[in-house]
Design goal:
CATH topology of the largest domain: Rossmann fold
Number of helices: 7
Strand order of the largest sheet: 2-1-3-4-5
Order of helices and strands: EHEHEHEHEHHH
Radius of gyration: 25 Å
CATH architecture of the largest domain: 3-Layer(aba) Sandwich
Low-confidence stretches: none
Shape: elongated
CATH class of the largest domain: Alpha Beta
CATH superfamily of the largest domain: Response regulator
Structural class: alpha/beta
Length: about 180
């Protein structure tokens, strides 16, 4: 697994990199948020660990951009446990908040949990999209059925007509409904 780390303190960055490599991860290191975003585009990491306070682009800004452009599990790493920073971080699509200094076992556990939570959120988003598409298709079919019923067909006859149209034209029911509605 390829992990992107970003911390403006070189000693922390090198220590974190060594710790992650000992845990068996491939590591890409950046000195600030802007560099982290560039490296993310270039190297396509599987997970990001971002320091919250960095020059140019801070960890929260970088996390926001990454979650929109390249969704991945994101952990925020910081020496600060200020409640306003925690609140800002919790409003983002991040999967963990770690306070320095971090131990290898804590880091590995956080990575495992972050990956699992990210996978679950991706599955929920896909399911939500699927349900929205099914609902949109159902609405189309209902509108097409209503149009056919205005032309004198019963509810069952209208539904059957849409089915036959879809089968005869090798289309989904939604595509058939759209074609029927386009005839108006």
């Amino acid at each position: 697994m390829k992990i992107l780390i970003a911390d403006d303190e070189s000693i922390i960055r090198m220590g974190l990199k060594a710790m992650l490599q000992e845990l068996g991860y491939q590591v890409i290191a950046a000195a600030n948020g802007r560099e982290a975003l560039q490296m993310a585009r270039r190297h396509q990491p599987d997970l990001a660990i971002l320091d919250i306070k960095m020059p140019y682009t801070d960890g929260l800004q970088a996390a926001k951009v990454l979650s929109q452009s390249q969704p991945m599990p994101i952990l925020i790493l910081t020496a600060f446990s200020e409640s306003d920073l925690i609140e800002k971080a919790s409003d983002l699509a991040i999967h963990g908040y770690l306070i320095k200094p971090i131990k290898p076992a804590e880091l590995n556990a956080a990575i495992t949990v972050a990956r699992k939570r990210f996978q679950e959120s991706q599955e929920l988003a896909a399911r939500s999209t699927e349900l929205q598409e099914k609902l949109a298709a159902r609405k189309l079919i209902e509108r097409a059925r209503g149009k056919l019923m205005q032309n004198g067909l019963s509810e069952d006859q209208a539904y059957r007509a849409i089915q036959l149209f879809a089968r005869d034209n090798q289309q989904t029911m939604a595509q058939a409904a759209k074609a029927i509605l386009g005839d108006s």
